[in-house]
Structures are given as structure tokens and as C-alpha cells.
Amino acid sequence: MLFDTHTHLTDAAFDHDRGDVIHRALEAGVERMVAIGYDLESSLAAVALAEDCEAVYAAAGIHPCHVHEACEADFREIEILLDHPSVVGVGETGVDLYHDRSTYPLQQASFRRHLEWGRSTGLPVIVHDRDAHVEVMSLLDEFSDGETTAILHCFTGDIPMAEKAVAMGCFLGFGGIATFKNSTVHEVVSRLPDDRILVETDAPYLAPVPHRGRRNEPAFLVNTAEAVARHRAVSVEELARTTTQNAKSVFRIQ
Ligand SMILES: [Zn+2]
Predict the structure, then answer these.
(1) How far apart, in whole angstroms, are the C-alpha atoms of residue 240 and residue 2?
(2) How far is ligand 1, taken at its centre, from the CA of residue 185, in Å?
């Protein structure tokens, strides 16, 4: 059994076949998925989907690339949503300096707010980091009090950053990039402690080899799990067991 810890199942890319996509995931052994919100609307949709489908959980938050479109009322509604029983994570949040550097002050304020929610609810904070390793680590450092847990999703940092994140109690998520040839994440994947590693698709983005360039979906997590298992020199079964256990523990799922 595999656990897709980061998927955007409510994305419009799945509007015409969402049920089939979830069915294919279950057939492939991807038995649990967290549908991640990136604004109020997608967070509400993620919760609705989780209420409908036993295999799906939700995370609610405002993505750094959407903070400039969110108003104060959206933030307040997200905060209320975090109490919903289907919500297992806060996010996604974080910093993206690749798409728009001008919104960094807004992104920073929003990230802090999500981290505060993580601390007050006990839910893990799901962190997006694009071209922002230094900024993300410095904000996480402000909250490295043992009461806030973060998941660095689609981790692309180097070994020293991974070691620092592990020391801070973070979990690291790996997706399609782990299947790419010559990826710098291979070494991080091979050296990460067993109890910190998660797998994810980030569907509909970043499809793993051999689906690269196409729409990604949770069923393709199998390809990522195979690559990650190979880099760690363990069987896929063992990798599945370890990462599913970690996902259940970080999302506090029985
Ligand atoms: Zn995402």
C-alpha cells in the first residue's frame, strides 16, 4: 500500500474523470491520498472530496503563488476549515521566488500565519519551496520549537539542507523528480533516515518517468516509489511500508 502525501485532486485537470483517477490509484495500490488546497476554493473542494471518498484526506491553505489573490476573509475561512475532521494538514504554503518575487512580503506573512496554525492545531504544515531554500529554512527556524511539524514537499535541496531539516523534525517528500536521470535529489533520497521520508505525486504536475510530460495522477506514484526504493537499495514493499507508516504518523491517521 502506498500513500500519496501531496496531490491536487481538485484541480480542473481532473474535472472530467476524477472518479476514474481515484479508482486507478486504488487499483495501483495507492490507497490513501491527501488532496492539497492552494486557495480557499480548492481547500473547500478538497474537504468535500474527502467527505465523499474514504481514501482521500484534505489539506487547507493558501499557496505562495496565490497569496496576492487572497483576502483576509479567505484566511479566516481556511483557519475555520482546519478544524474539519477530514483536514490532516495545513497548506500548501511556503515561498516561491521563481514565479513572482514581488509578492515575497505577502508570501512571508502568509507562511508565518500557516506555521502558527500548524503550532496551534498540531497539524503538519505542507511547505512549497521554489528557488527559496534560504528563505524557507529561516522561517522554519523561527518555528523550530518542537511544536510545529513541517513537510518539505517536492524536496530539491542538498544534503546539508536535508540534514538541517531532519534536525528540525521535518519530513521530506519526494515525487516525480526522483525518477529523472541525473537528478540531484538521488543522493538525498539515498541518505535520508527511514522515519523522515514521504512519497508524493504533486499531480497533475511533475509526472514521473515514463509518464514525463503528461498529466500526472496518483496511480503514477508507483513509478516514483520504485525509483526511490532503488536509490535506497530496499524493496518497493519495504519502501511502501516505511513511507505509509510515516505518512500516517505525520498526518495523525489511525
Ligand atoms: Zn502542490
Answers:
(1) 5
(2) 18
168: cell is 528540525
Task: Encode pLDDT of 123-143 as tens digits.
Answer: 999 999 999 999 999 999 999
What is the spatial distance between Cα 40 and Cα 213, in angstroms, rounded to a whole number?
28
pLDDT higher than threshold 90 for residue 58:
yes
The rounded Å distance from CA 126 to ligand 1 centre is 9
Cα of 5 vs centre of ligand 1, distance in Å, is: 10
Strand boundaries in the chain, DSSP class E: 2-7, 30-36, 56-60, 87-96, 125-130, 150-152, 171-174, 197-199
All 3 cell numbers of residue 121?
492545531
Q: How much is the average pLDDT of 40-58?
A: 98
Kindly state the average pLDDT of the residues 227-231: 97
In tens, the pLDDT along 153-198 reads: 999 999 999 999 999 999 999 999 999 987 789 999 999 999 999 9
Query: What is the C-alpha to C-alpha distance for residues 155 and 192, in angstroms, rounded to an integer?
Result: 12
* Class of the CATH-defined domain 2-250: alpha beta
Domain boundaries, the chain: 2-250
In terms of DSSP H, where are the helices of 28-179?
40-52, 72-81, 104-121, 133-142, 159-167
Rounded Cα distance between 83 and 225, Å, is 31
Ligand 1: centre distance to CA 221 (Å): 14
The answer to whether the beta carbons of residues 129 and 163 sit under 8 Å apart is no
Type of residue at 77: E
